[in-house]
dTDP-glucose 4,6-dehydratase
Amino acid sequence: MKVLITGGAGFIGSNFIRHFISAHPGYEVVNLDKLTYAGNFENLTDIEALSNYTFVRGDVCDRQLIDSLKFDAIIHFAAESHVDRSIIDASPFLQTNVIGTQVLLEAARKRGCRMLHVSTDEVYGSIETGLFTEESPVMPNSPYAASKASSDLLARAFHETYGVDVVITRCSNNYGPYQFPEKLMPLVIANAIGSKAVPVYGDGMNIRDWIYVIDHCRAVDIVFHKGRSGDVYNIGGKNEQRNIDIVKKLLVEVARKGGMPEERLLDLILFVKDRPGHDRRYAIDPSKMERELCWGPETGFDDGIAKTVEWYLANRGWWQRIISGEYQSYYEMQYGKRAGS
Ligand code: NAD
Ligand code: DAU
């Protein structure tokens, strides 16, 4: 089987390809990635020489390119993925996340092949109490979440209207190696190592459900092979954490593992102006995955945090190259005027 994986040079996509190729050595993988600011060729240097792996640089919106590729199934990770950037400019989010998904759905329809669409728990919006189930209403609050909700519903519509073999996953917040340093966890680790202020939005009491990236990758693999056509599957870590607690935990871990004074790192915390439309709480019920597909998260939070901090300490070159480029102007635009809530 030849599988087209989109967005494989990003955080989850690169972890997924590494997992997928080792779990299914008989498959061929074509990684289609535009290499936007978030895509990084370095993420997969360890597998680029494998004979069953091919990299194609290109845009998921490019119909001609997609038509020219040979594949038997699609796993679609490619997206603009950062909420804060979608608040600055929603246009690339609508283009890639909605139009790009439509192009891939058309390709799956033409070929009669399965497409797994990687959606997100953010499509549900914010929940005060209880958990999101697959039946919860879709109520996105950011332009990013709205673009993902649109693509998620488009995937459903292609299944209902044309009978395309679609499966959809909605996962909670991932963390682990190769995450771009604009997201909370790697940003905290990088700033702590560089003795820079650690920005916490609002009162820091927003809650996310965190899952180690490899547990998400295992879940996508299982849904791809065993998921019921047309179904949605929630994936979560059963691990709700307040932002401020995560930030403190990471700072303590960096101090311990990086040989830095804990008090000095904790002093770096800076409460800043809140994110507009900031979702207060995400909480996923993954029991359908457990019940029907025998999947569950395997990495405990302490273990996952330890591995993540170790990886960023051991791979400084990887993220220091990223934060020394265009990222500087993004950081200034995002955080320059934010200080002091
Ligand atoms: P990421 O930003 O790290 O990576 C996205 C990748 O997509 C990059 O390699 C980028 O170059 C590529 N890309 C962007 N636009 C493209 C285009 N037009 N054509 C081809 N490639 C393009 O994102 P991520 O955090 O790895 O997320 C991957 C997917 O998982 C996304 O669909 C995201 O919505 C979803 N998701 C993410 C999380 C999370 O916590 N990070 C949780 C649930 C779901
Ligand atoms: O829930 C799944 C989603 O998780 C994915 O669909 C998104 O692609 C992914 O980016 C992530 O979205 P979040 O907005 O939850 O992740 P982020 O890392 O940007 O922020 C996590 C929390 O931390 C959120 O409440 C905002 C807060 N935050 C974030 C940053 C970057 C801060 O307090 N300070 C910061 O500097």
